[in-house]
Amino acid sequence: MKRKKLIFIVLIISIIMSTILLFDKYYPSPGLSKVKIGDRMAIWAVTIILLIYYVRSNSKPQLVPSVLSSEKVANKERDKSNVSFKDVAGLEEIKEELQETIDFINNSNKYRKMGAKIPKGILFYGPPGTGKTLLAKAVAGETNSIFLYASGSEFVEKYVGVGAKRVRTLFERAKKEAPSIIFIDEIDAIGTKRNLESNNEKDQTLNQLLVEMDGFNTNETVIVIGATNRLDLLDEALLRPGRFDRHIFVGNPNMKAREQILEVHTKNKPLDKSINIIDIAKKTHGLSGAELANIANEAAIIAVRNNKTKISIEEFDAAIERVLAGLEVKNPTVLLKEKKTVSIHEAGHALVAKVLKTEMVQKISIVPRGQALGYVLKFPDEDRYLLTEQELMNKISALLAGRGAEQLVFNEVTTGAKDDLDKATSIAREMVCSYGMSSLGPMVVDEHYIKHNYEMLRVEIKKILDKGYKEALRILEENKDILHHVSNTLMEKETINSEELDDIFKIYEKPMDCAT
């Protein structure tokens, strides 16, 4: 590079001198009369040679793709993260675990005195939107070490050797600037399992990553943090201790964590005094941190749309419906007959769910949202981690109750139960293949067994679905008056909340016989 600049400077000087001498030939000046013709020819010749050389060096054809010839690495150091652990809510155990790693980087001597070694790699895995990338940013914000960010896709190129070179360059830089943290997002893009038949660019990139992670000098403080949604796809050699020593599951938040996450995302928003964050946390069971952040943002947008100065519970309820059920159709063209069918269908769901106490029915609506003509919002009273066989059967009955209500009232079924059937079949399949809750006994069925014994498994799944459907029909038949009352109220008001549904059920409560 320096040589090229020097040649360019000499070329400019030569061009200036050649121009002056050429001008002097036609308009002679006394000062240049002593310059001989031979010297003039030499200066002109040098200028032409330098010009030709410089032009050729710039237009020299590349024999290799620019992506290979360039020494520039795609994994550049990002700006310093302004995220800290204060911005990460609901992951206290994980933050405590990472705090040790940060402390090791900042105060490594006290750990070395005890003979402790820093984990070489930390792998975050879990469903999307649970805060894996946010945790890595928080680690960067909490430590003074160099933070190098890369996504798995940045190492994937069609040219052989590019991915491996980028991995090598990234780790060389990390070692040079230690202590440092390397964060590889979506690591499954390069870390998928190898097999005998594959010998592609991804395998070479993975091999280089394995060598770099296992080839550290123990005195160098370099930590690799990976994030993935698919732990099952990663190569076993990548997961072993010595590479990724710690595997940390980052799952969907529980009720307490949801409350903390909502508080973080609403702290800069003007909330109405009547809002209770705990109630909103209860209504958002099973949602990820990203979805909770989206709900808080949607509530603020809806408040602006309604020309309000503060966000009330109505905006949060609308935001929850927007995220879970989809965009409301303002001018639906639903036939009256179809509207009646939808009201019976949704009333069936709500009735069976309430009778079996599977989940709390928050709202019933026949206002179309997204592709759905109606929906029932229901959430459990409390976070559950274990479900009994009977509770799973109750869930199936509640899912099939919409179809059962159509069968009971109209003596025919419609296409509206497609999503319900899919969810019910999924639960039944898990009961047979994963939970050992069928006549096949306590066994887990793998994909190979399913492939060769599909008919037997199909019979078992059908038995469970038929049992759930039969139970749903029985409950609907016994509470037919309530079904029609809920349906008629939906036809009139289009939506029913939990309090209104309780009032309807109270009307049909049978008084208890008093002892004589």
Question: Could you characterize what this model shows?
Answer:
The structure is a single chain. It contains 20 helices and 8 strands. By secondary structure, the chain is of the alpha/beta class. 54% of the residues lie in helices and 8% in strands. α7 (162-176) links the parallel β2 (146-151) and β3. It folds into 4 domains: 2-60; 85-249, Rossmann fold; 255-325, Helicase, Ruva Protein, domain 3, CATH 1.10.8.60; 336-507, Peptidase M41 (Methane Monooxygenase Hydroxylase, Chain G, domain 1, Up-down Bundle). The protein has helices at residues 2-26, 37-58, 66-69, 92-106, 108-113, 132-142, 162-176, 201-214, 236-239, 255-266, 277-283, 289-305, 313-325, 336-356, 389-410, 418-433, 447-452, 454-478, 480-493, 498-507, and strands at residues 121-125, 146-151, 180-185, 222-228, 246-249, 360-365, 375-379, 495-497.
Low-confidence stretches: 61-79, 512-516
Work out the radius of gyration: 35 Å
The amount of beta strand, in percent, is: 5-15%
Total number of helical segments?
Answer: 20
Pfam family, one: Peptidase_M41
GO molecular function, one term: metalloendopeptidase activity
GO cellular component, one term: plasma membrane
Family: Belongs to the AAA ATPase family.
Topology (elements, then pairings):
Elements: H1 2-26, H2 37-58, H3 66-69, H4 92-106, H5 108-113, E1 121-125, H6 132-142, E2 146-151, H7 162-176, E3 180-185, H8 201-214, E4 222-228, H9 236-239, E5 246-249, H10 255-266, H11 277-283, H12 289-305, H13 313-325, H14 336-356, E6 360-365, E7 375-379, H15 389-410, H16 418-433, H17 447-452, H18 454-478, H19 480-493, E8 495-497, H20 498-507
Helix pairs in contact: 1-2, 7-8, 10-11, 10-12, 12-13, 14-15, 14-19, 15-16, 15-18, 16-18
